[in-house]
């Protein structure tokens, strides 16, 4: 089994260190770890955010574990040189179109959520975000406008093929968990969304046992906070999924708790090839201060064990250890406590 570790920037290396300690403690036989550069760290060392060596490494392993990329000092670079291009490039080049972002409150930890306890207890959703299309990957640019000032554009588009394959991912997940499927779009305004909705309705014919509904993204944001129990599997596009998943993480308690898996179609000897990362970024405001919550990173490792290595038991051990560590009070500043990054890692290791 081979895993590539890509720590990246800001708090990325800090939370990666804790995930690595958890992985070491599992003592998986026959596991080889590789480490590669991405983001601003890679730009400084190689002159580009996603070096060829890193991409090659990602192609030869069973799974990639990524920290985060992004650095304010790079925000004025030409776009193709910015750290964020590393993660966008990996997703696109590796065909990782299905981003799974589970948001649920661990039993007994409802008090960590800003929602009313009764609503928090019922929050148990899986966001299925399309990851390699939408306005993220359309043509973009700037030009002179008719009045002599500038204008910028980014084209939003989805092909039926792209919508169909992510819809199948979401329907399969809903069928497996027995939850309803809610497709989130903006079909009242966007033609891209109308095609999205029509395609989802077509795909639904293959899944007669799955209850399906459609909701506009603005209403979805509101309903998620008001009554999250309405949602089970949530299927949505790249941009809406990005925004709704940060919102969902706040409902759980902190963005420092929310993990993700990005999957495609490639199978390995042990499961599905994937890239795993917390949904948060490099958090430059708290980097280097032992303030980052490493649990989203550690929970991303659990997803890697389950989906790419077929290690369900170990994944459950890690998730159980995280839950017990939180219950025992391993709360970082993001959750109203004062435990540091290393201290939270220690608490998980102690429970493991
Ligand atoms: P962010 O997620 O980095 O931070 C948002 C807020 O949440 C900050 O106040 C931060 O301190 C806090 N936060 C984030 N993760 C935390 C953790 N584990 N523990 C405690 N607090 C945490 O988002 P941002 O500030 O909008 O972006 C910062 C940089 O990260 C930008 O360059 C952005 O492009 C990049 N980014 C990268 C990824 C990725 O690598 N997948 C994701 C999002 C943003
Ligand atoms: C995420 C991030 C990325 C995204 C950025 C850094 C490109 O916000 O993984 O959620 O928008 O997909
Ligand atoms: Mn995001």
TrEMBL record:
InterPro entries: IsoCit/isopropylmalate_DH_CS, IsoPropMal-DH-like_dom, Isopropylmalate_DH. Residues 2-348 form the Isopropylmalate dehydrogenase-like domain. Its cofactor is Mg(2+); Mn(2+). It is found in: Cytoplasm. Substrate binds at residues 91, 101, 129, 218. Homodimer. This is 3-isopropylmalate dehydrogenase.
């Amino acid at each position: 089994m081979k895993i590539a570790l890509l720590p990246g920037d800001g708090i990325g290396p800090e939370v990666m260190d804790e995930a690595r300690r958890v992985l070491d403690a599992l003592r998986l036989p026959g596991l080889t770890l590789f480490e590669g550069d991405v983001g601003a760290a890679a730009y400084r060392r190689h002159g580009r955010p996603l070096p060829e060596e890193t991409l090659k490494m990602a192609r030869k392993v069973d799974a990639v574990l990524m920290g985060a990329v992004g650095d304010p000092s790079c925000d004025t670079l030409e776009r193709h040189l910015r750290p964020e291009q590393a993660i966008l490039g990996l997703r696109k080049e590796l065909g990782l179109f299905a981003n799974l972002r589970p948001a649920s409150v661990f039993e007994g930890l409802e008090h960590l959520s800003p929602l009313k306890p009764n609503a928090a207890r019922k929050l148990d959703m899986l966001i299925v975000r399309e990851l390699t299309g939408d306005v993220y990957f359309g043509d973009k640019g700037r030009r002179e406008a008719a009045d002599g000032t500038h204008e910028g554009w980014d084209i939003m588009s989805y092909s039926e093929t792209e919508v169909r394959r992510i819809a199948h991912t979401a329907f399969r997940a809903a069928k497996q968990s027995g939850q309803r499927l809610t497709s989130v779009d903006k079909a009242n305004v966007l033609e891209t969304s109308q095609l999205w909705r029509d395609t989802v309705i077509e795909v639904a014919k293959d899944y007669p046992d799955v209850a399906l509904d459609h909701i506009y993204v603005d209403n979805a944001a509101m309903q998620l906070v008001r009554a999250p129990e309405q949602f089970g599997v949530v299927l949505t596009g790249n941009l809406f999924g990005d925004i709704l998943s940060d919102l969902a993480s706040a409902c759980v308690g902190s963005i420092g708790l929310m993990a993700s898996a990005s999957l495609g179609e490639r199978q390995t000897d042990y499961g599905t090839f994937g890239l795993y990362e917390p949904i948060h970024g490099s958090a430059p405001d708290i980097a280097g201060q032992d303030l980052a919550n490493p649990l989203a990173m550690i929970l991303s490792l659990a997803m890697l064990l389950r989906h790419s290595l077929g290690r369900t038991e170990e994944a459950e051990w890690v998730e159980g250890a995280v839950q017990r560590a939180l219950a025992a009070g391993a709360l970082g500043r993001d959750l109203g406590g004062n435990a540091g990054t290393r201290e939270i890692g220690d608490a998980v290791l102690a429970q493991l």
